[in-house]
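Please annotate this fold before class:
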Amino acid sequence: MSEWTVDFESTALARLGYLGSLAGWPVPLLCVSIAGGEPPTATATLPATRRRDADESRAAGNAFRRGSRAAGMDVPEAAAACSRVVDEVGGAVVADREFLDRVTLGILARGHVLLEDVPGTGKTLSARSFATALGLEFSRVQFTPDLLPSDVTGTNVFDEGDGSFAFSPGPIFANVVLADEINRAPPKTQAALLEAMEEGQVTVDGDTHALPEPFYVIATQNPVESEGAFPLPEAQLDRFTIKTSIGYPDDDGEVELLRRRAGRVEQAPTVDRVLDADAVSALREVPESVRVEDDLLGYMAALVRATREDRRVDVGVSPRGTQRLFETARAAAVVAGREFVTPDDVKRVAEPALAHRLVLTPDAAVNDVDKRDVIADALDRVAVPTVETAEA
């Protein structure tokens, strides 16, 4: 239904106009005169379909501009930018370089990251630090059992002044969104993220609203508590490009954590900005120029098929997962400063990109089979192609 904003000089006509707008009457029928007076003026906003077309046009323009910017950033420059971001975040978060690289891969592959770990390991600090280092707008949503979908996406609010509804954006309208303890929200609220993560937009009351570019979700969940928690459905797990964890620091890391705390007054460490939104958009376009040989495409497809044929797996990696493996492998090549993908890139990203997409059989779940072992076995079984690594 089209939305109209009508300015009336009469209170009676205002009520009629409001009721008429709800009924879908066209504005000219509402512009009637009262007691011989002049007909009030009326202004109409664009219909919902035309607004969506306008949003799509703006999105296409943004994509074109991002492509233009990416043309000015080559692979070595992108690798250097990623290294600076990881170094800056590593100055605040005591974690393995591999963990920081995996989060960076999710950003570079234009995907989203799920962090699963016990409380207090630095998941929230990691998300906030990456947002600051990237120079992006940050928003945090604390998921709770009583959180509603509209609390995440936003809602239409009635304006008594002009008798119209205006959209009030929710916290998801940011560049980097931290979905903290996502498994504490009911499935209906978790599903509110699906459209946003996959399509970069939200739909409220039939109207589509584009999210800011770039858009990146970092979700966290606590694996040790089951009371008041709702396990993420497979459909939503499949939309996360990377799933990883921080883990406890080793002895040296724990001492370094205390040393850093002793050297500052604030409880939380600070991070400086390294990039900005334009640079991040350009950075995320660079993997599109990375070359992948046909033998490696067959290797990735064979790995995915191996997960579907494993007797311990009820549901293997989906075609979406195959594409995410491809995109993450290209991102890994960029981080390494190469313009081509090698088998080692695929092996490096296979576990964090594929393991969480598997659904084990009941027997495997009872026997505590680790999904990561299924991926490791697939890597052992599938023959590795010999790829020429010299640049053409």
Summary: Residues 1-45 form one domain. Residues 255 and 386 are 44 Å apart (CA to CA). The longest strand covers residues 154-159. Confidence is low (pLDDT under 50) at residues 1-54, 56-71.
